[in-house]
């Protein structure tokens, strides 16, 4: 799990750079691989998320904006990158439990985001999970007999 957590952290930083610089994703990916020790990072996961978010951008933003109080253009770049990553994982990585996606997003926002940004990220990711992973979310809420 530590390798995947490191991959998410680097993917967030790379997506942030992509958002603010508009540099090509393949250039950013190459720079990150050259500049970081990738031996203890899930490199496939890093690349998938880094490449997948930009290619799915329209659909991701559409899903995110269903549950936010402002358009994505008005969000901080860190919040937006975290929400896009979370939405991507909900939609394309069904092997990752929804609780892990929410927790990782919250933890990343505590490290990189504004002081109370993790609360916003938590609320949006929770609503996204309910919409995009309803059977999984509801299965976790069923009373045990």
From TrEMBL:
GO terms for biological process: DNA-templated transcription termination; transcription antitermination. GO terms for molecular function: RNA binding. InterPro entries: NusB-like_sf, NusB_fam, NusB_RsmB_TIM44. Keywords: RNA-binding, Transcription, Transcription antitermination, Transcription regulation. The keyword Repeat does not apply. Residues 5-129 form the NusB/RsmB/TIM44 domain. It holds the Pfam family NusB. The keyword Disulfide bond does not apply. It comes from the Bacteria. Belongs to the NusB family. Involved in transcription antitermination. Required for transcription of ribosomal RNA (rRNA) genes. Binds specifically to the boxA antiterminator sequence of the ribosomal RNA (rrn) operons. This is Transcription antitermination protein NusB. It comes from Saccharospirillum salsuginis.
């Amino acid at each position: 799990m530590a390798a995947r957590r490191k991959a998410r952290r680097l993917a967030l930083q790379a997506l942030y750079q992509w958002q603010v610089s508009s540099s090509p994703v393949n250039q950013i990916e190459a720079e990150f691989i050259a500049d970081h020790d990738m031996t203890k990072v899930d490199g496939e996961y890093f690349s998938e998320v880094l490449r997948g978010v930009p290619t799915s951008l329209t659909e991701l933003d559409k899903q995110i904006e269903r549950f936010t109080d402002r358009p994505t253009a008005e969000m901080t770049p860190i919040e937006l990158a975290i929400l896009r990553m979370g939405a991507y994982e909900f939609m394309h990585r069904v092997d990752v439990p929804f609780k892990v996606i929410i927790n990782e997003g919250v933890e990343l926002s505590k490290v990189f985001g504004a002081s109370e940004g993790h609360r916003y990220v938590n609320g949006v990711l929770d609503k996204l999970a309910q919409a995009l992973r309803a059977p999984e979310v509801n299965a976790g809420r069923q009373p045990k007999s």
